[in-house]
Design goal:
By secondary structure, this protein is of the alpha+beta class. 15% of the residues lie in helices and 25% in strands. The longest helix has 10 residues.
Length: 100
């Protein structure tokens, strides 16, 4: 028995790195705010939250918001949003796992 055996989540549990409140039906997204709305980024972020986005980071200097959302089309309709892109998630197994 390794020290981590007791820490193994039950089958069907969301992947490591996700919080307890995360919904497995949400996709990771990156939202780009257009130049005209950079000064009012807080309103754009609030509108994204109202449409179901779980905001993880607001990168004001880049005009980007990252997080998770169930529907990217709804986010594209927010005034001030110029792009919504899916973020590819990669999960690396722990070093003690066998090579597959």
């Amino acid at each position: 028995m390794t020290p981590h055996d007791d820490d193994e989540p039950p089958a069907g549990t969301p992947a490591e790195g996700r919080g307890e409140d995360d919904d497995p039906t949400l996709s990771s997204v990156s939202v780009t705010v257009d130049e005209e709305h950079l000064a009012d980024m807080s309103r754009v972020v609030e509108a994204l939250r109202e449409r179901g986005m779980q905001v993880e980071a607001v990168l004001e200097g880049l005009g980007m918001v990252t997080g998770r959302a169930p529907d990217t089309e709804v986010l594209r309709q927010v005034e001030g949003v110029s792009a919504v892109d899916a973020v590819m998630e990669r999960h690396v197994p722990p070093p003690e796992d066998e090579i597959q």
